[in-house]
Amino acid sequence: METYETVVDALNGLKAKGYTLDFNIAFDKLMCSNNEICLNPNEFEITEVYRFEGETNPSDEDIVYAVEAKEGNIKGVITSAFGMYADALSTEMIQKLSMHK
Q: Which end of the chain has fewer surrounding CB within 10 Å, N or C?
């Protein structure tokens, strides 16, 4: 697994590896608004995780997840703040993402 200095570096590196879709977490699923792809937690695997901690500002904390669908050739990324800036998630999604922190 690569080592990246910034979130932007991680996103660019993953894009070069074919992780081209941008997913958003929508409580209990992943959504890609560009092509209306929707993945439930049992339909994808997290293949890489990169955590970035802000040295001086907690708002700089972020996690980048590389995601692959179990079926089809669907690869993308999720960026997610953690701590007090984290989005509301379902229990199933929390468990899926927490396995990889």
A: N
3 state DSSP class of 85: helix
Average pLDDT, the chain: 82
Helix, strand, or coil here: 97? helix
Mean pLDDT of 20-44: 88
Using DSSP's 3-state secondary structure scheme, residue 36 falls into coil
**Which tokens hold the place of 3?**
């080592």
Separation of alpha carbons 61 and 56, rounded Å: 10
Domain map (residue ranges) of the chain: 7-98
Candidates 52, 22, 48, 17; CA nearest to 35 is: 22
pLDDT of residue 13: 97
Give the residue carrying structure tokens 């500002």: 57
